[in-house]
């Protein structure tokens, strides 16, 4: 009898410890019972507050998963982040392959092989980094409040790095014979980019009410590149800059980014037809597609600039700088 009472007492103590430990676990730590719920989809009004972002997307939300395993398994089923994940993951694979290919190119394709590989490699890496982090963020956004917050800030870092990495090769080639201007513009852009990256780590920056602020900040960072663009146009003329400076691809990239960002900020088209674009066709889906279009167009422009410089060689006709 004493042994039975002792065993019963030990079992009760163990259960008590388990109950207390369960109560003490923060909401951001994995909950074992959540793993059995990974197939469940929710309506907007069923979401926890930290999950709410776009009230015009009415359904197909993943329940909180509290598990990276189930977040990644959700890649292979339909929910309202499926399109967001795949529209950036697949292009990130392309840029990863392109980066490897670019690194192995022969010296015949460059005037200054080491510098140019690094400069173009920075852009390709920033494109891969941005697209991959975006796909990762949309994957784990259903994990928990803490994980969603961490990865949203990483996503903002990726966007900032892409803007910086996009314009540095353009400045490098178009001011190739003007090293002081080249260094000044690259330095200023890098400082502004780092400031933006730090600012985006503010917790409230990722909340829905800061949607327009986010869009405006990234647009402002991109618009800072207008100074070297005006400088290049003033130097060679707008007509010549269209081809010589690959201005046409800059315009296409800018239009892609601006149109996509406009839809993201205004939540078109779902704001006009709430609940009709839950799975595909919402503003964030379209924004992703235009981001990829902008990155790809800029890649064409940068490779054209590389080929133009390779054809000219190291010859410089500019006699003054700044």
UniProtKB/TrEMBL annotation:
It is found in: Membrane. The keyword Zinc applies. Keywords: Membrane, Metal-binding, Transmembrane, Transmembrane helix, Zinc. GO terms for biological process: adiponectin-activated signaling pathway. It comes from the Eukaryota. It is a multi-pass membrane protein. The chain crosses the membrane at residues 83-100, 120-142, 154-176, 182-200, 212-234, 246-265, 277-300. PANTHER family: ADIPONECTIN RECEPTOR PROTEIN (PTHR20855:SF52), ADIPOR/PROGESTIN RECEPTOR-RELATED (PTHR20855). Belongs to the ADIPOR family. This is Uncharacterized protein. It comes from Oikopleura dioica (Tunicate).
